[in-house]
Amino acid sequence: KQEVTQIPAALSVPEGENLVLNCSFTDSAIYNLQWFRQDPGKGLTSLLLIQSSQREQTSGRLNASLDKSSGRSTLYIAASQPGDSATYLCAVQRTGGGNKLTFGTGTQLKVEL
Amino acid sequence: DVKVTQSSRYLVKRTGEKVFLECVQDMDHENMFWYRQDPGLGLRLIYFSYDVKMKEKGDIPEGYSVSREKKERFSLILESASTNQTSMYLCASTLGQRREKLFFGSGTQLSVL
Question: In this complex, do B107 and A41 lie within 8 Å of one another by their Cβ atoms?
């Protein structure tokens, strides 16, 4: 059974700092991995999707990497801003599981002025 | 942009009531999903549908049923609401091909008293 872990559960950084969020998964047989952002009381917004054949994806100040063999992904946020404060979740789409995703429990990020 | 609309942001129901949660997407997506999100447990898949009138159980289907009579609409039904079904319910959709981004609605916070 696929398990997805995100550590730490919460993180507080000063504005302008570069930071890395971590995601690990137990079964490397995946189609892809997605990173989502969730604001309090809201739904999830997909930030980046990395296919299993890819090593990384970039969007603006965000860069996500994938190391399938070691079961790890990182989300790098450059020059963090208070508006980046949110919960970040990763999810893997497992092979043979149709379109079902397995989610981590998220890292709650606070960027302080 | 894809729009996934959930009919209610907040709902308060009584134990034993039959509850309908509605979700509509406007991008002709084949796959639709219902998740519930609870603190410390993350997102858990209740049911999903890969075509009209087609459905499959997710990880926690007990106490729920679903209906998909039209491609754009996916309903979650709580046959007899119980207090342990108090949760944030999130609907999502994707085009249907593997390796596609998942798009979420804003969520329905359901309280069962």
Answer: yes
Q: Best mutation site among A49, A99, A102 for testing chain B: the one with the most B CBs within 10 Å?
A: A99
Q: In 3-state terms, what secondary structure has residue B83? A: helix
Containing H/E element for B31?
strand B31-38
Minimum CA–CA partner of A48 in chain B: B101
Per-residue confidence in pLDDT tens, chain B, 113 aa = 668 999 899 999 999 999 999 999 998 888 999 999 998 888 999 999 988 988 999 989 999 999 999 999 999 999 999 999 999 999 999 887 666 788 999 999 999 99
Q: Give A100's contacts in chain B (Cβ within 8 Å).
A: 33, 45, 48, 58
Cα angle at A38 between A36 and A41, to 5 degrees?
155
